[in-house]
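ok so I'm stuck.
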Amino acid sequence: EVQLMESGGGLVQPGGSLNLSCAASGFAFSDRVMNWVRQAPGKTLEWVATINPANVGSRFYANPVQGRFVISRDDSENTLYLQMNRLKTEDTAMYYCTKGAWRSRVRGQGTQVTVSS
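replied:
not stuck anymore, here's the structure
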């Protein structure tokens, strides 16, 4: 059974940082494209970042987070990360990790990120 478990969210002031984690199990993590997506209240699901398997190594970011967020993976721990820096109020959302297509419905419970002063 595929399982994804996000953690690391919280309340942070604008300009602050958070590091999200996604623990994966039930599939060959190292072989899969992995994504972070987010959904703010009243808004549609938004793609945040994608990382290819290590043998490809490329990473992609949505324009709103480019230069502030870094996606990474630890295949030895089956864990995906999202380092979020210089956070803005508009980054407030529930954050999820997905595998394969970023719109995949297979997601964990999410982790809430709230950026507020």
